[in-house]
Amino acid sequence: MRRIYESTVLRELLRPLGQIAIFVTATGAIFSVAMLLLALLFRGSAADRLLQENNHINIFAFTLTNLPQVLVDGVTLGFVYAAIALGYTMVYGVLEFINFAHSEIFAIGAFVGVEVLIALEGAGQLSSIPIWLAYVFLALAVIAGMAAAGGMAMLVEATAYRPLRNAPRLVPLISAIGVSFFLQDAIRFTESITTGQFHRIIPTFGNFDQRVSLVKLPLAGVVTDINIQIKSIVVIAAAVLMLVGLNYLVNATKVGKAIRAVAQDRPTASLMGINVNLIISLTFLVGGALGGAAGVLYALKFTRIDPFVGFFPGIKAFTAAVLGGIGNLTGALLGGIVLGMLESFAGAYLSAFTMGAAGAEYKDILAFAILILVLIFRPSGLLGEQVGQKA
Amino acid sequence: MALLELDNIHSYYGHIHALKGISLTVDEGEVVTLIGANGAGKSTTLRTISGLVRARHGKVMLQGKDITHMPPHEIVTAGVGHVPEGRGIFPRLTVRENLEMGAFTILDKAEIGRRMERVFVLFPRLKERISQKGGTLSGGEQQMLATARGLMLKPHILLMDEPSMGLAPVLVEAIFDVIKELNSTEGTTILLVEQNALMALKYSARAYVLETGSIVLSGPSAEIAQNPQVKKAYLGG
Ligand SMILES: Nc1ncnc2c1ncn2[C@@H]1O[C@H](COP(=O)(O)OP(=O)(O)O)[C@@H](O)[C@H]1O
Ligand SMILES: [Mg+2]
Question: In terms of Cα–Cα distance, which of A90, A89, A81 is closest to A283?
């Protein structure tokens, strides 16, 4: 009995790691091959000639030498999106409702985490500290962001969604949009009266901005140093840890089984002695905490945040959740990685391939295009069940 | 004192007045059946007992304690098991997980294991299917799972809503045998809702007949089975 128990524990820890490895490798490989083929097709084109003229590199070599960095960035971003997407998809799984305020929950996490670090910096705690202490402080900021975001998500559920639980489906959706605007302004208001600023910059500390060199590869005749920023490693490691933890919670614990039971049949779940309201609260807590952690990690990666910081990551993570199949946790992971990869590739190559006509700033359009295409052609997503069954 | 007592219960769905003053009692150790046509309010009566539907007037008493306004999960803890209409198994949980949900309020893992073994004695089929997802079971197996899940809590009183619905005659017999077994060997009190009135009356001691939200007849099952009106309406002549 004990041994069976332990093997399920191990399985639930290893399975998501395997999934993550497969999704990252497969998505990375597909995007790389497609991009390299595209580069071959573009050989001799005006875009190629322009690159040769200005940068003395042909379009294929340009694509190949940039590829490792683009992949690393794509994975980093993908995990951030996956962590946010899990919040959308968990809530959808349990309530069949899209929590549009989740992007602001993410923003609250980012702000609280950054404010914690700014306060530490103000107290002189961040300069010339040992590396391990920097990691402790970062962990502290992430935990504070998770607690604030998780707590806020629970509060929003209890006040803005629970009273509308039996209302027509559109009603809580509108409430969520209202909450989203409200929280944006609440952040703005709080920041302006306490700090006098709308945007905040995460302090520079520890070794997070350094790069570690992984390998030197001869790519297209150029020896390329493939390196990764330490903060990217931190983001990836933290996200993987959370994804594995969430998978374990949902699949191997009693609370997780209760969450799934509530998602499948709320009245029957209550007949099992499950406190449905408590489980729904917990779902918001967990989803919100993941979003909050993603917010702090996002701030670490992109350094600057403002009250609207949640909008784009939110909509992309939502797209990721829909792409993977909303309500499906594995789908959110896959969708997040695809979206991150897509954005990274678009950001790096769009400009060169269109000779500057469509710069990296157009990368966001791709996420919306994907959202629309998925909704039209495969509303159940890549891994989802038929949506119609549940409606 | 009756184990379960409903006193002048009125329940509504929006404006639909589904229960119009239901009063009934179930004594410790009894099998009581509730028969009636489709839409009479049988399921609503059970849902009102377990708190899924709120009574607008009247009282539900369990062992003399007022449970009318308790939330469903507390009513479960108080000892009421409910096997809902249409089985309500969790389709994407395995058989084992479904049974674990039935024992949700029990914290002792060893005790959960013992209870699972106990229901496997009643339903050996489920043991063979233990790792299968609930939704992949046959209709009969799903009914067994729903019943077994209702037993995991060792309820004082088990409410069963049409356990024979959609089952082949041989399975109907098997389900009723389990009900009898439970009642005689474990002393579980059972309130049974059935459209299969013939079977229900055969296996129960007392019966209530429900018509459009009101009880029109009650008494020992043997007498009810002989009632000319009941014979005409529910027993096919
Ligand atoms: N969820 C519901 N919403 C509205 N009306 C309902 C609902 N469930 C049952 N009813 C109505 O309540 C009455 C009693 O239904 P029910 O208790 O399910 O009957 P029975 O179980 O005896 O077939 C019926 O008129 C039915 O149409
Ligand atoms: Mg019914």
Answer: A90
CATH number at residue A136: 1.10.3470
The interface pTM score, or ipTM, of the predicted complex is 0.93
Q: Which residues on chain A are in Cβ contact (under 8 Å) with B82?
A: 271
Dihedral sign (CA A205, A209, A211, A212): positive
Q: Which residues of A touch B104 (CB under 8 A)?
A: 254, 258, 272-274
Give the residues across from A218 on adjacent strands: A223
Query: Cα separation of A191 and B173, whole Å?
Result: 70
Q: Is B39 in the pocket of ligand 1 (CB under 6 A)?
A: yes
Complete DSSP assignment for A241-300: HHHHHHHHHHHHSHHHHHHHHHHH-HHHHHHTT--HHHHHHHHHHHHHHHHHHHHHHHHH
In the chain, the amino acid numbered A117 is L
Contact at CB, A275 and B84, closer than 8 angstroms: no
Query: Which mutation among B44, B83, B160, B161 tests ligand 1's pocket best, with the greatest number of atoms within 8 A of CB?
Result: B44
The string of pLDDT tens digits covering residues A247-304 is 999 999 999 999 999 999 999 999 999 999 999 999 999 999 999 999 999 999 999 9
Q: Tokens for A48, please give them.
A: 């190629």
Burial class (CB in 10 A: 0-12, 13-18, 19+), B165: middle
Fold of B4-89+156-234: Rossmann fold (3.40.50)
Q: SS3 of A95, please?
A: helix
pLDDT for B172 equals: 87
Residue of A nearest to B86 (CA): A268
3-state SS track over A4-71: HHHHHHHHHHHHHHHHHHHHHHHHHHHHHHHHHHHHHHCCCCHHHHHHHHHHCCCHHHHHHHHHHHHH
What are A152-175's pLDDT values in tens digits? 999 999 999 999 998 998 999 999
Domain containing A331: what range?
Answer: 2-389
Structural domains in chain A (count): 1
pTM of the model: 0.91
Does B82 lie at the interface with A, CB-CB under 8 angstroms?
yes
The 8-class DSSP code of residue A359 comes to -
Residues B171 and B140 sit within 8 Å (Cβ to Cβ): yes
**Closest C-alpha to ligand 1, atom 5:** B13
A175 Cα to chain B: minimum distance (Å): 24
Q: Is A387 exposed, middle or buried (0-12, 13-18, 19+ CB in 10 A)?
A: middle
B157-161 and B189-194 beta bridge pairing: parallel
Residues of B within 8 A of A1 (CB-CB) are 113
